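Explain this protein:
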Amino acid sequence: MLVTEQQRLKDDIGTWVQQHGAEHSSLIPVLQEIQAKYHQISEYAMQEVADRLGIHPVEVYSVVTFYSFLNPDFQGRFVIRLCRTISCDMAGKDRVARQLENDLGIKFGETTRDGKFTLEWANCIGMCDQGPALLVNDEVHPHVTPERVAEIVEQCRKVFGPLAVHHTHHDGRQEARS
């Protein structure tokens, strides 16, 4: 039997709701699981989560569009978020941003054609004393220079392989996924 992507998503949501509980407080953990595996939270996923948790779909949509780490649009396997606070700005954030855009061939808010990288701004990642700082998925990179950008991008390509992505579960377990 051929399992469609929608059926796989529905089954995964069922599993995550069972793991986290079918109550309102499970909304964000379930959405984080969807984001990590599918690199987006589609309208179908939002409706399915709402149905499983017994909440209105508009509430799910509001949460997805409010939090910057959840996204209804497709994101690359490596989401690079560069901090844009005043402290990172003063430490050279603009030069790092230009280097990221040049090395990846995309602007902030875009995803590479191969689906590997997405560039985003972050309002603060709590590394004000170590700026400019960025996140690659959940991994913090402090004191980033334009010279380190190529190294960080290459590390993503090498460590995780061309088709795999590193994923840390909310309970701390880690795995590589393709």
